[in-house]
Amino acid sequence: MLEFQTPELLRMPLQELCLHTKLLAPVNCPVVDFLVKAPDPPPALIVKNALQMLKSIDAMDPWEDLTELGYHLTELPVEPHLGKMVLCAVVLKCLDPVLTIACALAYRDPFVLPTLASQKRAAMLCRKRFTAGTFSDHMVLLRAFQAWQKARSDGWERAFCEKNFLSQATMQIIVGMRTQLLGQLRASGFVRARGGADIRDVNANSENWAVVKAALVAGMYPNLVHVNRESLVLTAPKEKKVRFHPTSVLSQPQYKKIPPVNGQAAAVEALPTDWLIYDEMTRAHRIANIRCCSVVTPITVALFCGPARLPSNALQASSSYQGDRVSSDSSDSEMEDRTTSNVSLLKLDEWLHLKMDSEV
Question: Could you tell me the CA-to-CA distances from 158 to 149, 286, 307 in Å, in that order?
Fold first, then answer.
């Protein structure tokens, strides 16, 4: 047993720490150099990775200075990517559902993992009932919270939580976090008491799940995986094979009685699109697992992923990327050649390349 508790500097999220460090560090002092002066500094490599993540979400510029977005994120009591998600929700006018999802992700999964093996399947079925056919763990969090709110107003909150394997205490904390986060948005001027940007205005699209997912994508980037339809596996920028975490509703395909031998491959094959966002990637025995996933469309990825300002060479004509890993193979068909010649390549980052119709 440790004689002393691990310093908070080594326990708190480094991305949030790096943002606030920029507010405290002297001008022109790199974050790594400032943090290394602490009695128990975090590893320099992990700090650099956190800084790179902040740059990828436009919270910092290439010189480690805070952007306007970065300054706003320092005011929000959640991790930077969740803060960006919430701010995008304000812009897209779908704040309420994103507030719920962000607070649930910031705290912990409200679902309780049963200890009895016989109850684990029942718990997974409860999760799946909240998906509404959306292939989304985020929808599960949202609908579970909304159903819990209704049960609480109807006076059967405790029975509802027991029936659906939910933690009543976790739900109460999420309510408090929502209130705190909304209060900060009001204090910062993003949500106003009346007129434009009032609470009704910033929720004009809250019932539109496609718009809600757009805000999720903007916040979750670069946490993105792609479906390889040939090998039926998920791939990420630094991972050739990624699996769904067992608690994800996407981890198993919809089957009635007997699960298939290769459940993961069947689950991947059943996905309606080739792109997914996720909240967290963990590793166990050399296998990367992703938690809290949602399928997203390519057009959503193209519009809401990548840096705020793309470089001038981000969009390339078909002739300029011959031989690229995503280019089409040569064909003897005149029709296929004509189709390929009308395709351009959109490079959002070093890994995320999308084919686009040149006429769009």
Answer: 11, 40, 45
* Tokens coding 355: 């084919």
Single out the residue of 57, 60, 47, 40 nearest to residue 17, CA to CA. 47
Task: Kindly report each contact of residues 61-68 with a partner whose C-beta sits within 8 Å and lies 24 or more positions away, as own/partner.
Answer: 64/22, 64/30, 64/31, 65/22, 66/19, 66/22, 66/23
Contact 101, 145 (CB under 8 A): no
Residue 92 has pLDDT above 80, yes or no: yes
Q: Is 214 domain-assigned?
A: no
Asked whether residue 339 carries a pLDDT value surpassing 60, the answer given is no
Whether 117 and 193 map to the same domain: the answer is yes
Residue with tokens 């007997």: 258
For residue 104 the two structure tokens come to 């649930």
Rounded to whole angstroms, how far apart are CA atoms 248 and 154?
A: 29
The answer to whether residues 176 and 111 belong to one domain is yes
Do 202 and 255 lie in one domain? The reply is no
Is there a single domain that holds both residue 320 and residue 236?
no
> Do 172 and 237 lie in a common domain?
no
| Residue where the block lists tokens 């298939």 | 260
pLDDT of residue 357: 75
Q: Are strands 239-244 and 287-296 parallel, antiparallel or unpaired?
A: parallel
316 has a pLDDT exceeding 50:
yes
pTM value?
0.89
User: Contact at 8 Å (CB) between 190 and 90?
Assistant: yes
For residue 350, the enclosing domain spans 313-357
**In terms of pLDDT, which residue wins out, 8 or 204?**
204
**Tokens representing residue 197 in the block:** 């940007």
Is 3 part of a structural domain of the chain? no
pLDDT (tens digit, 9 = 90+) per residue, 258-306?
Answer: 455 567 888 899 999 999 999 999 887 788 999 999 999 999 999 999 9
What is the sign of the dihedral through the CA atoms of 55, 61, 66 and 71?
A: negative
